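Per reviewer request, we include the raw input and output of the structure prediction for the construct analysed in the revised manuscript.
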Amino acid sequence: MEDNLERENNDIEIEIEKETKPVNKKLTIFNFLLIILIFVGLFTYMIKVDGIDNILKILHTADYKWVLGGVICLIIYWICETLTLHIPLKRLYKDQKITSSLRVSMIGQLFNNITPFASGGQAVQAYVLNKENRRISDSLSVMALKFIITQIALVVSTLFVVVLEYKFFMELMQDYIWVAILGFVINIIAIIVVILAGVKKRAITIITNPIITLLGKIRIIKNPEKIKNKLDASIENFEMQFKVMKSEKKMTLKMFITAVIQSFAYYSITYMVYRAFGNSEIGFLQIIPVQALLLLIMTFIPTPGSGLGAEGGFYLLFNSIFKEGTINISILFWRIYTFYLPIIIGSLFLLPVKKKIKNKK
């Protein structure tokens, strides 16, 4: 039994190594160049549209206590991100340190932002945890549990605020109401699918297996049987996490509350930017559902950190709310908080890990 488990763990580790190989030097350099290009493009556009004099005037008159508030919200977001990872890891490994969980979380922030669809974060986190003598299977299970609880917390908190600010949200989103409806429907379906995967495996495989077989026959995907096996393994992982959630109710509640706070901290960054540049017409709760919709749009943008799509979505959704002449500088500050700072700070956390791995080798 132990030999089988060890072989399984080794197989998973090989898969993780494969997943982390695409995050190689060439791809990383390309992604960083693309990120720099997007930043330069945004800055150039802002200067061309608003003018350097107006930008300097806005920066001079900005209320920097709100700018500092944005930094505090970002730090709270990072702390909550760390805790949602640390709580289940601590259950498995009593010697797990919060500093280690913080480092792994911030490295995840880095790779989520420099890879399309935030696809690189979890694989690299599992790899780093493995170098700290944590089984990769355990790491993946912890991240699956974290994903389930975070998604549920995100949707529940957003829907709660939408109900509270329904009238304002409908008026503001009248031109994009179909996007809002589609977004919330997708999120709800995603949660239903996750729950079904956790409690009724066959309900998922009955739907997915014929689709995978069909895609294999028309040669859209290669090796459909391998994909089915991976899907089965993922569903079994979800089943295991739901059992953990049922048996560890106190731990699950802690993670859920932390994830809710994390969601509100992220949404609050937009409100801090809004207030920093002299805006005060709408309240904090009215910003949240619009930001939640933007976050959903960003998940479908196939560029590192949802580049271009995030900036464009922010402009479309918030342009009517922000004062004239402040929207572009607001986009720049918002992206510094939610995109560029996580990359910079995450890179700093990566340095000691590289050194540690090198020393072990």
